[in-house]
Predict the structure.
Amino acid sequence: MTHYSMKHLLGIQSMSVDDIHSTLDLAESYAQLNRGRDKRASVLNGTTQVNMFFERSTRTQASFELAGKRLGADVMSLNVLASSVGKGETLIDTAMTLNAMQPDILVVRHPQSGAVDLLAQKVECSVVNAGDGRHEHPTQALLDALTIRRSKGRVEGLTIAICGDILHSRVARSNLLLLSKLQNRVRMIGPSTLVPPIFAEFGVEIFDDMKEGLQNVDIVMMLRLQEERMSGSFVPSLREYFHLYGLDEEKLAVARPDAIIMHPGPMNRGVEIDGLLADDINRSVIQEQVEMGVAVRMAVLHLLPRLRHQEGAMPLATPDQLGQ
Ligand code: CP
């Protein structure tokens, strides 16, 4: 198995098409392992993974923790609320402090775009971006691609609609980058306040009407309305938003009959998606996305080059030195 040529996974931008395919292929084998009774592999035995989440998370934090543990790493999740961050310690000082404890991998989520890239320049271990502001969420795009590939048999040549609050979404950006690299047609649908026209420069087709944008699409990817990132009024009312942009049976009817529904979670039921559609196991792959999240994060942790010691930052002690 060839490891990534890059030291960190900071975004889809820096992944090659080969990197993406290698990740999906390995993740597929971890998806099989995860359905078995014994879910352990030993590829990260002896390594240390530290998770630092400066923003709330259920899916990403839990799945990175499970992924590291299933691969045999020692995993520590920093409780940011109870840490010295509350006393004013900066992100970089926090990261440097943990770096001094010799981790091999830092998994970081932060509300500021670019914060994870900055941190990666300051530490010696590999850094994985678990979502930074509106910038990127690379493992989400990879798990979405794996879910699509499992459902459609391929993740090329499809028409994919990304719908809703694109302006505030790192998931939309990472998916656009990945799906474009793999030669898919990407549409973005939402009110003009939430769909920046600049995306048209990346070859995206932009629609402000759901029934126009969803015509004959293979994949309907709904996004959460991120009210916590909104400083003004971007939608008239939640009721009006659901009427115009919430996914329901009537709007979905214009997509291909075998179109699948995706949502990265967490969902606002009755705002961007009808709750019954989200739970319809014949159309919705939302639970499979969560399942593939663990498999993809196992593959990413596996494929990161373990450079810390190779680069001589701190040579590994020999068994003699340890008195073994
Ligand atoms: N999709 C996603 O990132 O979910 P969490 O915020 O729960 O991690």
About this structure: Residues 57-60, 131, 140, 264-266 surround phosphoric acid mono(formamide)ester (CB under 6 Å). Confidence is low (pLDDT under 50) at residues 311-319. The longest strand covers residues 126-132. DSSP finds twelve helices and nine strands in the chain.
